[in-house]
Structure formats: structure tokens, C-alpha cells
Design a protein that fits this description.
221 residues; mainly alpha
Length: 221
């Protein structure tokens, strides 16, 4: 909860802003939605960067939680907070009509965060590692022979290969290797037995290893 949240809004928007509230509770989505709508309207109508900063202050923690849940459900292997950063970056340059603001800010943001996560997963799955035999071309047109960046290439191939896995495998590998959950916790979360989850994780790791190998071989393999 942001200290003095309601006072900060009224200082910016006027004493009548959210007049029915005696305090702003950022754990209540409806109150967050109302505060966000008022701040976003102010930002769009008056190009008020301070209103946008306050919007970020009041909603970023809640959006981070939503983004983390989306990343876990979809099995996204990259930093979930990147979704929040991308969302606010796009919101800042949004050319929607100034008076048009979402009635339910958090629900609208969640839709955009999920769309962005799906795009990231798709784009990574469709990408390839660069050919290590091709030279690097610098901006001035000169070339330098590419050195053998094995570790970097394998790490890049791992990101690609991970996102080529089925969602079920991505989800459990993310829970295990990124969120750091125990096999027992993941089994409970997924509603299955420890033995079944252990077998699923083993299969996921085997498939990931094959996917990484396929990526490293290149599209012509």
C-alpha cells in the first residue's frame, strides 16, 4: 500500500478526486482501477508526466504479480517484469483518444501483458542462433571473423529451445529452475503426485536437451 496515496492523488487532481474514499487501499483492485483511470485521464488530457509517474507507482507492484502469474502459466523463460516495463513504455506513447481510458485498468493491462508474453514466446521459438562461421559485419562495413562464442551460443540456443517446448514442459521447468519450487510444491500446484511430477520434469529436461541440440544444428538440419 502506498503511504498517503489518496492525498497524493488529491494534491494532483483536486480535493474532489475519489471523494467517497477515506483512504486508498492498493490491495483492492476496484480502488486501483479507479485511481489508475483518474491518473491516466489526467496524463492523456494534459500530457502530465507526474500523473504518469504516480500511475506507475500505484500499479507497478500489482502488475508485476499479474505478469509473474502469466509467465508461470504460459511457461515464459524470460524475466516477467520485462512485460511490465514494456507495458508502461507502450502506455506512455499510446495515441488513443485522450478521453478514452479503460474502466478496469488492471484487467485491461492483464490482457496486454498476456498478449506480450505470447508474442515473446512465439518470437523466441521462431528465432535461430547466428551462424558461427559467418563473419561479424561492423557498422562501417568492415568484417571481423567471428570467434567461437560457444557459451553464449548455447545460452541463446537454450532460450530458443526452451520456448519451442510444449507449454506443459515450459511451465514445470520454469517452476523448478526459475521460480525455484521443489518438486513436491510443483506437484501440489499442478494437482499430481510427486512421482508423476518427477517423471514429467525428467521428460521435460530430455526434450529441452534435444531442442537445444536441434537449434545449434541450425534450420537446415
Amino acid at each position: 500500500m502506498a503511504d498517503g496515496g489518496l492525498e497524493r492523488i488529491r494534491e494532483m487532481l483536486g480535493a474532489d478526486a475519489l471523494s467517497d474514499l477515506s483512504a486508498l487501499d492498493l490491495s483492492v483492485d476496484l480502488q486501483v482501477d479507479r485511481a489508475a483511470a483518474a491518473l491516466l485521464k489526467r496524463f492523456r488530457e494534459e500530457d502530465d508526466a507526474a500523473a504518469f509517474r504516480l500511475l506507475v507507482d500505484f500499479t507497478s507492484d500489482r502488475l508485476a504479480t499479474i505478469a509473474q502469474d502469466i509467465a508461470a502459466d504460459l511457461g515464459m523463460g524470460t524475466n516477467s517484469y520485462d512485460l511490465v516495463t514494456n507495458f508502461f513504455s507502450r502506455l506512455f506513447i499510446d495515441l488513443s483518444p485522450r478521453e478514452k481510458v479503460p474502466l478496469h485498468f488492471l484487467a485491461s493491462a492483464a490482457e496486454k501483458l498476456e498478449e506480450d508474453a505470447e508474442t515473446i514466446i512465439r518470437d523466441l521459438a521462431l528465432s535461430e542462433v547466428p551462424d558461427p562461421e559467418e563473419p561479424t559485419v561492423w557498422q562501417d562495413g568492415s568484417q571481423q571473423e567471428k570467434q567461437n562464442h560457444t557459451e553464449a551460443m548455447v545460452a541463446h540456443a537454450a532460450r530458443i529451445g526452451f520456448h519451442r517446448l510444449d507449454q506443459t514442459y515450459r511451465r514445470v521447468l520454469r517452476a523448478k529452475d526459475i521460480s525455484g519450487l521443489s518438486t513436491s510444491d510443483i506437484a501440489t500446484q499442478q494437482g499430481t503426485s510427486y512421482a508423476e511430477m518427477e517423471a514429467l520434469l525428467q521428460t521435460a529436461r530430455e526434450r529441452l536437451a534435444r531442442a537445444i541440440d536441434d537449434v545449434l544444428k541450425g534450420p537446415s538440419s
